[in-house]
Amino acid sequence: MTDAAAEFRALVDEDWEHRVADDSLFATSTGDNRYNDRLPHVAEADFARREATLKALRARLTQIDRAALPPAERLNYDIFGRLVDNDLGEFAFKAHLMPLSKVYGFHSAFPELALFMPMATTADYQAYIARLAGFRAWVAEHIDLLRAGLRQGYVPPRVTLDTVPDAVTTHVLAAPEQSVLYQPFTQFPATVAEADRAALVAAGVSAIATSVIPGYRALDAFLRSEYLPAAREDTAAANLPNGAAFYAHRIKYYTSLDLTAEGIHATGLDEVARIRAEMEALIKRTGFAGGLKAFIEFLRTDPRFYAATGEALLKETAYVLKRMDGELPKLFEALPRLPYGIRAIPDYAAEGNTTAYYQPGSGDGTRAGMYYVNLTDLPSRPLYEIEALSLHEAVPGHHLQIALQQELGELPKFRRFGGFTAFVEGWALYAERLGLEAGFYTDPYSDFGRLSYEMWRACRLVVDTGLHALGWSRQQAIDYMADNTASTLLNITNEVDRYIAWPGQALAYKIGELKIRALRAQAEQALGTKFDLRAFHTVVLGSGAVPLDVLEALVVDWVAARQARA
């Protein structure tokens, strides 16, 4: 190892140790359980300290001779630098002053604490109780941070907060035993000594009674009396302090490319037109007597397309994924060792949430990946979307990609447990389309669901840029989505509010998928009969969630090597 390589690895290792110590919840998510008894600090001073630490880290990185690094380490160097720059941009635009919405936030994540911590020993329970006991102080820090946002003009739009108080109030309970956080004390694993259980229950009850419930009560009071009344009526990121530059940063942050809002908007319009033509052609093949709008209304209102119970929806989802499990070896040379499961989004978090989402497993293999499905308002959860949705969130989408990445033991941890959204979401959208090559979407309505999902992501390019840079209203965005997708109005409204709450993130899906599909087309054309889809997927997935320009270089090199061998 060269001196430069040793210096770089030491810097990366030092940064990783600092990150997991500073963010104990992130540490737990990676399988590092050294800090399971604490919660990360979120005071303004803590964010100022983190920003200063990152700036010092960036300065040290520039002192390392990149040219002296071996090729693999140069790639690590470049990716690490870009991740640091992304984080510094978030600090510069003070995104940390707006840490919650109905889409995300500590208030909705904390109740799932027991699902992400090991709960096998007395020490595990004691760590869990310590976090429960620390919740009230953690809420106080968050409230101070939100007040700082109010003072400095970093305030979310009202529509992104309207259901948050109700989501908080559901945890303000009359008795600790009613809390979802009490559940681990109702049934202990055999590995927890019988003699310890009564004391653990008492400590858990006390922590919930004196910390968790009062913490949620204080947060509820603050939200209703101070935060919501001060929320913005407008929706554009451009209206935040230095908002235009913030949104430009978010475009680069989430797409990993140098793109403009106007260019992305135009790409979205082109994709919408292309997909709409495919939808209209499919409608003709079904024999439906009517146009796109009438067909969408038919899909939204015909009861045959909706499950009668949440259990039926979960069973249909499980059946689709079990079928796909059997097709994966035809598409991939390597599959992850870590399994995945299916779970309903908890009731306290379901209202206003997305249709489904994926939660990665732990890096140490002790917790499976989990595909969460929203079972509220079943008339808004059409069966014809299940194939595309499940292939996106589980396999061959998020679970397969993220679990494989976590198992790339030769990569440094910042690449195994981090990455670029455009790759992650672009791969998952590409994975939806892989269903065509694996025998899915044989039913025309399911295939229309696939097209509708692709259209949904194309519309995001139009709507996100429209909302945050081009002066669109919320209703204009809702109407555009309703006119062009088969999604239900509830889903559309929730999704538009998500784009308002999370500027730029919605751009990652279609931008990433377009790049992966373009690279595949180029490889197929260059290699002809020598093109191997399984080998292509190995190249795409084999380096983790890299920036899209880096992915392009990896594929170009692979094609050249295959051509040279031929």
Task: Provide key terms for this protein.
566 residues, mainly alpha, 2 domains, 63% helix, three-stranded mixed β-sheet
Short description:
This protein is an all-alpha fold and 566 residues long. The chain has 24 helices and 3 strands. The chain folds into 2 domains: 3-235, no CATH class; 248-512, no CATH class.
| Stretches with pLDDT under 50, minimum 5 residues | none
* SS element count, helices: 24
Strand order of the largest sheet: 1-3-2
User: How far apart are the first and last residues' alpha carbons, in Å?
Assistant: 33 Å
Strand content: under 5%
Provide the number of structural domains: 2
> Which structural class fits the helix and strand makeup?
mainly alpha
* Series of H and E elements: HHHHHHHHHHHHHEHEEHHHHHHHHHH
Helix fraction bin: 55-70%
Total strands: the figure is: 3
> What do the pLDDT scores average to?
96
Shape verdict: globular
The largest β sheet comes out as: 3 strands, mixed
| Rg for CA atoms | 24 Å
